[in-house]
Amino acid sequence: MFRLSGYCFAFAVVVMMSAAAFAESGSEEFKGADFMFVQTATGVTFADGKMTLTGLSPSMIFFSDRPERMAGHVPVTQFLQIWDEGKDSFKNDPPNAVVSILGEKEGGTDVIVEISNPSLSEKGDLTYDVKILDGTPPEKGGLTSIVIDWWVGPAGAVCWRNYYTGFRHCRFPGPYYYGPHPRPYWVY
């Protein structure tokens, strides 16, 4: 009988320790990290020093490297709101980005640009001022992915650590929309 109760006690201790470890990995306020952002669209045009993304996904992926190793999603509208926040903002130090474009016949094209002055139209197209740093962009292209260079984020994201992997996941406040791109653009 004492042996069974000893096993039960040991089991209870293990369960409580696991619960305590899980509680430690719960939500925590984000303190800042260097992020890269990935934006996707179904089309892109380049004209007169501007790049316009059409069929824009309403959500972007962001991620950081060591030591934090965080990843998450941010609505495009939230990304545009934080564009000029902080001393290390994109407004003060326009980011570089690689624009990867799939053409219908010519295959993939990669262009390195500096982007600034983002503007979201009523119909959901996003336009950046661009300075071409390397490569030759097509006038028009199909599926497009943009990887935007490092940014030091302000507080505001909510992060949690995965209990099993230790990987931290974050998201910025605000509603998210997953599904077909609405017309007019989904307003958060």
List keywords for this structure.
13 strands, alpha+beta, disordered C terminus, 2 helices, 188 residues, 13-stranded mixed beta sheet
Note the main sheet. Answer: 13 strands, mixed
Regions with little confidence, pLDDT below 50 for 5+ residues: 6-26, 176-188
| Total beta strands | 13
- The radius of gyration is 22 Å
Percentage of residues in strands: 35-45%
- The side-by-side strand order for the widest beta sheet comes to 1-12-13-6-5-2-11-7-8-9-4-3-10
Mean pLDDT across the residues is 74
Helix fraction by DSSP (H/I, runs of at least 4): 10-25%
First CA to last CA: what distance? 61 Å
Number of helices: 2
What overall geometry do the principal axes of the alpha carbons give?
globular
- Helix/strand/pairing category: alpha+beta
Order of helices and strands: HEEEEEEHEEEEEEE
- Domain count, please report it: 1
Précis, in short:
This protein has 188 residues and is an alpha+beta fold. It has one domain.
Descriptive account of the structure:
The protein is about 15% helix and about 40% strand. The chain is built from 2 helices and 13 strands. Strands 1-12-13-6-5-2-11-7-8-9-4-3-10 form a 13-stranded mixed beta sheet. It is globular and about 40 Å long. The model is unreliable at about 5-25 and about 175-188 (pLDDT under 50).
